[in-house]
Design brief:
The chain is mainly α and 423 residues long. The radius of gyration is 22 Å and the shape is globular.
Amino acid sequence: MLQRANHLFLTTDDADTVAAVDAVDAALLRYGKDVGDYLHSPGPTSDCAYALATAAAIHLFALTAPGRALAMPLVAAAERLATAATAHEQAYVSGIAAWSRGDIGKAIAAHVEIARRWPRDLLSAKILQFHQLNTGDFAGMLTALDGIVRAQPDIGFVHGMRAFALEQAGDLRAAESAGRKAMAMGHDPWAHHAVAHVLDTEGRAREGRAWADRFGESWAGCSSFLYTHNWWHAALFELQLGDHDAALDLFDTRIWGVRPGSVQDQVNAVSLLARLEVAGVCTGDRWAAMAPHLEQRIADRANPFVDLHLAYGLARAGADGAVTLLLGGLAEQARSDRRIDIAAARAATGMVAHARRHYATAAEHLDSALVDSIGFGGSHTQRRLLDILAADARARASDWGHVVAGPWPKRAPQPADRLSCAS
């Protein structure tokens, strides 16, 4: 048994395994692009349950069926070894195993226990925040961080995580303070992200543009997710300021194409392109270019938030076969009578209807799903896309008085229709 840098113990006699776990911990906290290097370290082949579970977690973060398949044998090996490990390691393995099997409630419970009993485990805390974001549990996110902040007030990353939780819970002043405190303590792209949320929510777009100018170059070392996501926030500031050319340029140079196979990059791209079109921007053939990458993900069922973006992007690209498969899969899930699955199926139908310019149908389905949208996943800024499309659909259906079919208009009726080019 050896001690980690955070003073917790791992059941292993291999110092390289401990160093590898510490390295991936640091990489995940700063969202470094070197996280994947861990898969080539001693971790996945070690005799340490915690190290094996961490390797599985890296695959699960991809939110894909192939990622889950790669994680499963690692989880099985971790569970075998966990019987001889510490209580802390057993709880961690339990959380990762539950995640791999789709039992996010059990995974959250395991990581909440770790936050309470072993608050120095920031790798577990980061995974917990990921799950709580994807289930809309923002109150729980804040509660779990209380003990972590008390245990490690000198770690900037802790304040960055707390800043995001505070912003999602609606305490904007405290969120900005915590985010700026984290930034003062060291490089933390997640703290940059949390402050961006505050600036966006408060409509402080000029400050947001300056924020991106100040920190943007430092995101080059981030994984594609946070690199493209922070630049997505920067593009939203440009949209607020009415500089559509700048927003579209960010789409082309910073958001789409960095890692087109990444689900999270796809979400950023679909969301921005949809907002640009509603704002009246001609997007050319960009939907068609995205479609082959989106089609690869329709069977993954990562979470409703991802599926809704896939549905919209594929419908805008005219990939009708893929849309049919995706909607069919969501309808099948909705037969479980779980409220969130029913709402997701309705929301996806509404997203597709908007993309196809069937506005009355879009408004009906989106409006009925919005009440449950917090459970779809994503931040409130990301979920705002549903509100934008629902409001747009209501306005267009009311203004035109009927369901419209055909190409996107080159110059649409005013005031509701603001799209500027044909698909």
